[in-house]
Amino acid sequence: MALSRILIRTIPLALVMVIIKVFLLPIFQVNGADLSALVEISDLSVVFTGAFFVMALMLTGTMTDFKESEKIPGEISANFEAIQDWSILGFKAPRTGTSDLSKEPLDKAYVHQTISEVTYGVIQWFRTAKKDSRVVFPLLRRLNGIAYYFAERGVDKEAIKGIQENTNAMRKQISRAYAISRTSFLSSAYVLLNAILTFVLALLLITKFKTPSAEYMATFILAFIFIYLYHLIIDLDDPFSTIEGSTDVELRPLEKFHSRLGDDFLKY
User: Fold this and answer.
1) Residue 165: what pLDDT?
2) Is 154 in contact with 101 (CB distance < 8 Å)?
3) What Å distances lie between residue 2 and 62, 160, 244, 247, CA to CA?
4) In angstroms, rounded to a whole number, what is the distance separating the alpha carbons of residues 238 and 267?
5) Cα(170)–Cα(185) distance, rounded to whole angstroms?
6) pLDDT, tens only, 39-60
């Protein structure tokens, strides 16, 4: 899970902060004072509070895109479901064409294979790091191929229209996912984020606490919180990353649709 990965990255760094503060910095002195006790914690409490507030605001900004991203796989899956239903209508409704193609039986295997392959292709596209638009949009165009196939054979016009509308809706959802994945948080905001983390950890190393136990615990807890928030903001900034986890959008709705497509296609 992604949260476990964040913990794995955070806990060792927080422990390193404690080791540096407790065992290394006391060796060095500035004007007769230990480097690890240059300022009182009471003097810096407002600094830590302000830093936490700013990081919380940045976390809120990344969460906005994440919440929107969570809906996208379900919406795409719903469009695939609708295309399957419109295909069912195309197979079952009376055909009105007068051409020779209108008299031929419709190819169930072609329609099923196209929807299945496009679904699988979209899932794999989400799992790629590059997320190349030149791959996914031609893939979606194959769904319009079903509409053209039906149109040539006199299939009900509502079925054709439904397939095209749901394909167009899917393009918009894919475009939004592409934009979210390829657009990082403001670079200036990342500069601020890195600066805040650096300043907080540096100040934490030279802060004096009243007792040794408070020094160990407060150093570890504060370092853990700020480092964890830093990694969480970074991870949430790309909810469609190539590694699945708690801070990555799940593709389960698409995977479930693809897995059951072979079981219930045209069985109505």
Assistant:
1) 96
2) yes
3) 16, 42, 7, 6
4) 39
5) 25
6) 888 888 888 889 999 898 888 8
77 phi-psi bin (left φ>0, alpha ψ -120 to 50, beta other): alpha
What does the alpha-carbon distance between residue 119 and residue 260 come to, in Å, rounded to a whole number?
A: 12
Please, are residues 36 and 26 in contact by the beta-carbon 8 Å criterion?
yes
Comparing C-alpha atoms, which of 163, 168, 165, 135 is closest to residue 148? 163
Place of tokens 């390193």: 16
Domain boundaries, the chain: 2-264
Other Cβ atoms less than 10 A from the Cβ of 205: the count is 17
Which residue has 């190349």 as its token pair?
132
Using DSSP bridges, classify how beta strands 39-40 and 33-34 pair: parallel, antiparallel or unpaired. unpaired
Contact indicator for 265, 130 with CB cutoff of 8 Å: no
For residue 111, the Cα-to-chain-centroid distance in whole angstroms is 31
- Pairwise CA distance, residues 89 & 192, whole Å: 55
Q: Check residue 29 and report its DSSP letter.
A: E
| Residue 96 burial by Cβ neighbours in a 10 Å radius (0-12, 13-18, 19+) | exposed
- Radius of gyration of the chain measured on its C-alpha atoms: 28
Return the structure tokens found at 51: 């830093």
- ∠ CA 133-138-144, nearest 5°, is 135
101-105, 126-130, 156-160, 247-251: least confident range: 247-251
Phi-psi region of 215 (alpha: psi -120 to 50; beta: other; left: phi over 0): alpha
Q: Is 1 strand, coil or helix?
A: coil
Q: Which amino acid, one-letter code, is at 152?
A: E
What confidence tens digit (pLDDT) does each residue in 111-126 have? 999 999 999 999 999 8
